[in-house]
Amino acid sequence: MCLIAEVVHSCSHEKVAHAAVASIGTDFAGKVKATASVYGMSMGAFAARTVVQFGRTCGGEEKQNLRRLMKGTDQPILIALEHILKPVVEHAATPQSADA
């Protein structure tokens, strides 16, 4: 199984996604948890849903970029998960997204 498929497969489960986000670091986990609460979800459920959505919608170029980020790292799945979640978390934190 390719690593991106493994990320989607593994982190589409709420408890696995929760543990993976928590292991990235407390600062990042806090941001994910705050974003999840905006949507009335737990951190794990939000992360899992975001990963599943990524798996369904990401294009070839996005997959290539993610493969480059993961290549040669000690924790490729965590790198990928952070890369998948970060833009969603950052978008939710911007003032204009609160008005939308």
Q: In terms of topology, how is this protein built?
A:
Blueprint: H1 3-11, H2 14-24, H3 26-38, H4 43-57, H5 60-70, H6 76-93, H7 95-99
SSE series: HHHHHHH
What is the chains' assembly state?
single chain
Report the C-alpha radius of gyration, rounded. Answer: 13 Å
First and last CA, distance:
38 Å
Helix fraction, binned, reads: over 70%
Strand residue percentage: under 5%
Return the structural class. mainly alpha
Low-confidence stretches: none
Q: Main β-sheet: number of strands, strand sense, barrel status?
A: none
What is the global morphology?
Answer: globular
Domains (count): 1
Number of helices: 7
The total beta strand count reads: 0
Mean pLDDT figure: 90
Describe this structure in words.
The chain is mostly helical and 100 residues long. It has one domain (3-94). It has seven helices and no strands. The radius of gyration is 13 Å and the shape is globular. It starts with a helix and ends with a helix.
